[in-house]
Amino acid sequence: MPSGAGAPLLAASDLCLVRGGRELFRDLSFDIHRGQLWQVEGANGAGKTSLMRILAGLSRYGFDGRVQRRAPLLYLGHHSAVKGLLTPRENLAWHVSGAGDWSDADIDDALARVGLCGYEDVASHTLSAGQHRRVNLARLYLCRAPLWLLDEPFTAIDRGGVGELEAVMTAHVAGGGAVVVTSHQALQVDCEVRSLRLGAGGAQ
Amino acid sequence: MWSFLHKLGSPPWLYAISGSILRWLLPLTLLALAAGVVWGLLFTPPDFRQGNSYRIIYIHVPAAVVALAGYYVMATAGAISLIWRMKMADVAMKAAAPVGAALTFAALFTGAVWGKPTWGTYWVWDARITSMLLLLFLYLGVVVLYEAYENKEAAGKACAVLSLVGTVNIPIIYKSVDWWYSLHQPASIKFTGDSTIDPSMLYPLLLMICAFYALFTCCLLLNMRAELLQREARTGWVRKLARGGE
Amino acid sequence: MSAPSTTRFCLRLLRRQLVLAVRRPAEMGNPLLFFAMVVALFPLGLGPAPEALAGFAPGVLWIVALLASLLTSDNVFRGDFDDGSLEQLLLAPQPLYLGVLAYIGAHWLVSGLLLSLVSPLFALMLNLPAAAIPALVCSLLLGSAVLSLVGCIGASLTVGLRRGGMLISLLVLPLYVPVLIFGSAAVQAAVDGLPVAPYLAILGAMVSLGIALAPLAVAAGLRISIDA
């Protein structure tokens, strides 16, 4: 699908955010179309996470401007939303249950693809932080939402995992989806990366 | 109409207009309060049963009436801030809570003072007193919740939800407390229930009620202005105000 | 994959909450233990005379059950808030009203229902006449549902705050008053040999009103807390 075809999945206009008397960004306008990959960059405290939460619709007050969401979206934030008392299979089944009914085989398959084969039935509190993140990322294999908002998805992920994640994002974009990702590292992907730089003096 | 609503959302305009309202409302309020107090305390006949002690109704009743109405003012402002996202409604709600709490406390305090000569004790678990006490708790809940939030915008929204919940609950609380009282106490101590009030005592009371409404409005506006200045401290118009006056 | 159904989603959420509760049995037992201990304080404070205790029993049992329910309601959303599950619930393409109702239902099942079922034991310890015990259980079953509904409103508003524990009591206790009045009056009526049904009907009305309105307030509270 050609980049930019049709109505945008998400349209942000004139976003302006002030935190603690400091202006993080102002007059930020962009459209996210199918087939686009956006990377939000900026120093710590530049407002990357705040921007992602505004785009996801979790932040509804405290900023100016408007965000129009025209498609279902998937938001993965800093927190893994993994319950220590539940097994990875139960966690994942619960995470995806809002958007669709998946069979146990689908769930196990997704867990296997993020390298958690054999860990399906152990309590999640015995797993490492990186494995928690992987349970979370397994949602990407089950998600039908065209727009992904990934806030620091590479945190605690090993090098192999980063490569797989980049491959998934590339495939999603090539398949007509869109991805917005915040990360400090350069993405190794086979598609155009649009950069959204937040910093002193507003977005560029 | 829309331009008026738009102006209502603008802090400098609200600050200016509230200033000009206060310029005549505040003296008028003080005048009405003074007139009502003098009229009520000096120029009304003593009650045939309670003597002079009844005169505290000129403070007690207006405080109680306005305290209850104040909760609804607060909840209405909260609803407006939730539905139309008007920041000024947020400010009004935040400003109304302490004023309402103070009036409720005044009503309770004067009630206790009145109770001593009338019932021989400062506190009885009378239905009205209990209801007022619960109203005070509801007000204080809003104040405490507002203070607990660091993000004042979220605080306003949370208090708006709480005050709306309180609005639904107040009639239920009042009715159940009324019923509870009738269950536990025979209706023997009832002074204000069916006794009619003489016009010579009623008119100063009505004046005092009006004066208390005006007082509530004044306090609300003063509180709102302080809150506006605090919230908008970094904007141009406040800086200009601080530098050169109005 | 088939289209997601709201009913299935809510049942799954309810089951998840119950599984989480059952895997921490100690936490589930805490309110019951609290109930037992506070009930034991009353004879120590008021004296062991059976008649005096029986006189206070309806009110005491109701107040203690109310406090036990209040103490547990603080934790309804806290864990899910801390680990990010709540964000995902808010973003799920499902009506938040029903999701919230599932949370409240789970809370009632592990607090109110259990408290109601063990309450006859403590009623006997406080010398409550046996004839009043069915009224106690029924009034607690209905009343604790209202307590859960109202308690969750407080929980949703304070979940984002570090020191929510004390605050939730201040917000919620005044709202508990009607339940306490009619709940303890139901038990008192049974002690006096009067009909209990009117009180239970009023409690039932409160439950209906709570189910209709409380989830709206909880949903609004959660959105605000997530945003703060």
Give a short overview:
Chain A has 204 residues and is of the alpha/beta class.
Layout of secondary structure:
The complex is a heterotrimer of chains A (204), B (246) and C (228).
Chain A: E1 10-19, E2 22-32, E3 37-41, H1 48-56, E4 63-69, E5 73-76, H2 88-96, H3 104-113, H4 129-137, H5 139-142, E6 147-151, H6 159-174, E7 178-182, E8 193-197
Helix pairs in contact in A: 2-3
Chain B: H1 2-8, H2 11-42, H3 57-83, H4 87-119, H5 127-148, H6 152-184, H7 199-231, H8 236-244
Chain C: H1 6-22, H2 25-46, H3 50-73, H4 78-83, H5 85-91, H6 96-125, H7 133-158, H8 164-191, H9 197-227
List keywords for this structure.
heterotrimer; B: 246 residues; mainly alpha; 8 helices; C: 228 residues; elongated
Notes on the protein architecture:
- The complex is a heterotrimer of chains A (204), B (246) and C (228).
- Chain A is α/β, with parallel strands linked by helices and 204 residues long.
- Chain A is built from 6 helices and 8 strands.
- A 5-stranded parallel β-sheet of chain A has the order 5-6-7-3-8, with helices on both faces. Chain A has a 3-stranded antiparallel β-sheet with strand order 2-1-4, with helices on one face.
- In chain A, helix 2 (88-96) packs across helix 3.
- The longest helix of chain A is centred in the C-terminal third of the chain and has 16 residues, at 159-174.
- Chain A is globular.
- The model of chain A has no long low-confidence stretch (mean pLDDT 85).
- Chain B is mostly helical.
- Chain B is 80% helix and 0% strand.
- In chain B, helix 3 runs antiparallel to helix 4 (87-119).
- The two termini of chain B are 27 Å apart.
- Chain C is an all-alpha fold.
- Chain C has one domain (6-227).
- Helix content of chain C is 84%, strand content 0%.
- Chain C has helices at residues 6-22, 25-46, 50-73, 78-83, 85-91, 96-125, 133-158, 164-191, 197-227.
- The longest helix of chain C is centred in the C-terminal third of the chain and has 31 residues, at 197-227.
- Chains in contact: A-B, A-C, B-C.
- The A-C interface holds A 56-62, 72-73, 75, 77-83, 85-86, 90, 93-95, 97-102, 106, 144 and C 1-5, 8-9, 12-13, 16, 19-20, 23-24, 79, 82-85, 87-94, 223, 226-227.
